[in-house]
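Protocol step 4 of 5: obtain the predicted structure for the target chain.
Materials: sequence only (see below). No template structures provided, no constraints applied. The aim of this step is simply to have a reference model before the mutagenesis design in step 5. Sequence pasted as it appears in the construct record:
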Amino acid sequence: MSTDARTELSLDDLRAEAMAAGRRPRRRGSLYVAEHIIRAMRAYGWTLVVGAVGQPVLYLVGLALGLAALIQAPIQDGGQQVGYVVFVAPALLMTAGITVASEEFSYPVMGGFKWRRFYYGFSASPLSSGQIVNGQVIGVSARVVLTVTLYYLFLLLFPAVETPATGWIMILVGILAALAFGTPMLAYAASLEEDTGQFALVQRFVFMPMFLFSGTFYPLDTLPVWLQWIGWISPLWHATELGRDLSYPRETSGLMVAVHVVVLLAFAVGGYLAARRIFARRLAA
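Step 4 output (structure tokens):
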């Protein structure tokens, strides 16, 4: 075989290897991005652990020894009388998951476009914009899983779960609740060009009213009708209601369970699709 033939064959082999190397990110690109997101979290890893452990302890001890001591009468919920800590516990777990989503889908996302600009680095590789979004969601979901799982374990220790056989499913509901709030936040953060305090406004005028008026500390129907609508459109209320159905026995209808699940899925899927469109537009510009 001539030298030219050997050279041509060698170039073909190199080209095939390069194509194969380019296809691997296409197959596993979402996991590569998720790995980067999780590794970046290691910079504040101890903060994550302390927050995931300390928050449930402080909240539950404060409620059990403080507010619950003042509220002697049990809460009447769905035909079932339950202690105040048992009533509040599912809402606190859902809030913990949503809090993580609000943190990780706000400034870190803007940083990926504006300050650190690592999304553009991902996009310059064979990764697609859809895979970048998928990896971001997977990476944040990993932190949510850690947070809500530890929270549930503390609920068992107190104890604040009357039916552990179904109560563990609250972990899955907590993840869905985080995505229901988080993926619209991801889309919103990706659409921002400048930081002019928008995330502070979201915390003040979206997150806090949702936390206070979504049946977190008292049944939603005890609020005036003109405030109840906040709970009806709130992912936190829908997730909390599912959590209470799982945490202790109470009267509920299959229709309402389906409504809660559909609303949470609609928020999560709608936000995810919007985020994909916004990422594709910005990374193609």
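Step 4 remarks: DSSP finds twelve helices and two strands in the chain. The longest helix spans residues 3-41.
Proceed to step 5.
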